[in-house]
Amino acid sequence: SPRHGRRAAAKVEAAQQALSRFPRCKAKDRTANHQRAVDKVAQLHGKVRRQRLDHAHKTALGLVRAHDVIAHEDLKIRNMSKAPAPKPDPDRPGTFLPNGAGAKAGLNRSIHDAGWGVFLTILHAKAESAGREVIAVDPRNTSRTCPECGHCAKENRPTQEKFHCVSCGHHGHADTVGATNVLRAGLVRRDANLA
């Protein structure tokens, strides 16, 4: 993901701060400067949206032209980007314990900036019109299962990037291992549907 939202964040923040200096009012009561500030914020958000769509269309088209079968993880994006539930403090009523909302907000911003849902919608549409097949695969344990021996364990992923099978010793990048497992599961599912 080129992270268009992150790259434009400073400009958007500055434009929104300039807009926040004006009192809230109806569109017909805005001054010329207020309207320019509103238009600037809308223009910046629109540019980011168009950049995301352009990247999604070009990437999806490249995949559809290069492959007959495309498998992807069937991610529940809405569930992934939910805000964490508040944790009430049992010792002090009316107060809350830290729940990691700050870190989760950053992750949610990255998820939305990537635009996975829009990309998958575009990919499915382009694949259907080109006669290609797109298969959604259950994402559970795809990056924890060894592609060599099939051993599945949490310990196979010592870090976010590294994969090291504790059973057979296979080394690899976690994303490559996950992609291999997703493709295999997609092909198995495709063969089961054909049979």
Features:
mainly alpha; 7 helices; two-stranded parallel sheet; about 200 residues
Q: Report mean pLDDT, rounded to a whole number.
A: 92
Give the SSE string. HHHEHEEHHEEEH
Main beta-sheet annotation: 2 strands, parallel
Number of strands: 6
Can you characterise this structure?
This protein has a domain at 139-195. 54% of the residues lie in helices and 10% in strands. The chain contains 7 helices and 6 strands. A two-stranded parallel sheet has the order 1-4. A two-stranded antiparallel sheet has the order 2-3. The radius of gyration is 22 Å and the shape is extended.
Topology:
Elements: H1 4-7, H2 9-20, H3 32-66, E1 69-73, H4 77-80, E2 87-88, E3 96-97, H5 101-114, H6 116-130, E4 133-137, E5 162-164, E6 171-173, H7 174-194
In short:
With 195 residues, the chain is mainly alpha-helical.
